[in-house]
Amino acid sequence: MKRRILTLATAAFALVANAQKVDFEEYGLNNGMHVILHQDKSAPVVTVGVMYHVGAKDEADGKTGMAHFYEHLLFTGTKNIGRGEWNKIEAANGGAGNANTNWDRTYYYETFPSNNLELALWMESERLLHPIIDQKAVDTQNEVVKEEKRQRMDNAPYGKIIYGDVYRHIFDKHNYGRPMIGYIEDLDAAKLSEFKAFYDKWYMPNNAVLVVAGDFESKAAKKMIKDYFGPIPKRTLPKREKIVEPERTQEKRVKEYDSNIQLPAILLAHKTPSMKERDAVVLSVISTVLSNGKSSRLFKKLVDDKKKALQVFSFARELEDYSVYNIGAIPLGKTSLEDLIKEMDEEIEKLQTELISDRDLQKVRNKFENNYVASNASVQGIANSLARNYMLVGDTNRINKELEIINSITKEEIRDVAKKYLAKNRRVVIEYLPKKK
């Protein structure tokens, strides 16, 4: 009977995957810029996004923070958009925009009523062709970045875990070990010429993907894209240095201090495969089994039943070269961190030696289905997914394969991946402790 139920659920899952299929068209401009178009006329809005293949990992020693800095700097204005006018133009035309950075890429996007597609394309082409990069802009944004660091990392409880500052304990060679926001002393010491050099090195059409998603006419959009982006000259991309991070063969233990917390935490941190690899998806499944929701194994055991933890968590941060997978808990009462490690290890060992149940496997699939639908519920979300899959995964159509991949993951794969990547000799154990002010 269980086999029959699982078969019917799998069939229903496949129907949902087909119903959610994202149609798109992609092509290249003569200057090397890749273009992806996704039409959706269900609402009169359109998103224009440009993703540049540059992030914190591409920064030179002693010049960190540049990638994230440009996320802010390129909203200053351009030759044809006055200083401080960018957001005003968006608001006056019913639109909004933003940007975000990680270790691998920087992404800018605008969402407007569909009759303002040309405005959005012009603004993004201006950002690439005529940005304001002068000392006044640099000084202003330097203060903005410092305030962001204070709020998100320096003054945020457990901020070093959330924003990846603890990755320096995981990576000994790779630049993922640097904080994504960079080191403030590097930004303070940087000269204007160095800021300009970073832009010239990475910001070019042949290092970018342009996505237009929403309500538009294909022929008209293609003409506007050609008019605004086609004339921008391509340049020679620098050769990317591939940094190989050695495999860890012995457990590493470190302590990290945070003056914003009163309760300690324990973190089991692991270097895991690139987001391009199937095993990275399997680890996301493992994360869901362990700690996603109140019925997850760690939550039920440590929070509900034994009341040894105030909170448990595990999450995978998927990146282009390698990924990071963390499992953690905050103790309750007199529970020691070592006791939490022992309890977490018991659940990890179960995953490494026993097959999960049909029910648990289907529950995971349901959660991924919900997440997939939510992430693609807007043209803004679809634009981001299309750009990311093209640039970092190397397969734009991965957006239509996600549920299929999840649905094909077997119980045996879950066991084998847990055994391989969550082995004790591969991990870093981080005691995350309160620091006296």
UniProtKB/TrEMBL annotation:
**Coiled-coil spans in chain:** 334-361
What Pfam families does the record point to? Peptidase_M16 (PF00675), Peptidase_M16_C (PF05193)
- Domain (Peptidase M16 N-terminal) spans 35-181
Q: Which UniProt keywords apply?
A: Coiled coil, Hydrolase, Metalloprotease, Protease, Signal, Zinc
Quick one: signal sequence residues?
Answer: 1-19
Residue ranges constituting the Peptidase M16 C-terminal domain according to the UniProt record:
193-367
Homology family:
Belongs to the peptidase M16 family.
Query: What protein does this entry describe?
Result: M16 family metallopeptidase
Taxonomy, top ranks, is: Bacteria, Pseudomonadati, Bacteroidota, Flavobacteriia, Flavobacteriales
